[in-house]
Design a protein that fits this description.
By secondary structure, this protein is mainly α. The protein has helices at 13-43, 59-88, 93-107, 112-122, 130-143. It starts with 12 loop residues before the first helix and ends in a 17-residue tail after the last helix.
């Protein structure tokens, strides 16, 4: 059951869910990008000895600074998502369950079957069916934008 506080006729639920899913699915790309940026850093810099130009510009240093900026932005984007999920889970027990659904599927990259199994284990349930999972996930996706600093909700267009 979607809570009344997060159900608003002003917003288009389907478009909002689509935006939230796109943002959360992007988390996997952020993790991959983080690993690539770290791997690049491990490769190290290659110097061939003598400078080839008369300028005193250190291009390797500029490249490293740019890489560090990209890595910092990437870490920031990852933190936005994980912190929003944590905040969402601190409201009440039901919100914690909704946050767990998002955490299991979009941050830990579990398939639906694994999400259901891990959810049931965490909350000591005998079973957590997929249909219930999808209902909770829909509610969680609609609740997530309230805790995420970037606007993901889509306003309804009036047909006047």
């Amino acid at each position: 059951m979607i809570e009344d506080a997060f159900k608003n006729s002003e917003y288009d639920d389907d478009m909002t869910i689509r935006n939230v899913e796109r943002e959360l699915r992007g988390f996997k790309g952020l993790v991959i990008k983080r690993q690539q940026l770290r791997a690049y850093h491990l490769a190290g810099q290659v110097y061939d000895g003598m400078p080839h130009s008369t300028t005193n510009v250190n291009h390797e240093e500029e490249k490293e600074i740019a890489r560090l900026r990209r890595q910092e932005k990437n870490e920031f984007d990852m933190a936005l998502i994980t912190n929003a999920i944590k905040l969402m889970g601190q409201i009440d027990e039901h919100s914690e369950q909704l946050a767990t659904i998002l955490q299991l599927q979009f941050v830990e990259f579990n398939r639906v079957d694994a999400c259901c199994y891990k959810f049931a284990q965490k909350y000591q349930l005998p079973d957590f069916p997929k249909s219930t999972f999808y209902g909770y996930r829909k509610e969680a996706l609609l609740k997530f934008p309230a805790f995420y600093p970037r606007e993901l909700r889509v306003k309804r267009e009036d047909d006047d």
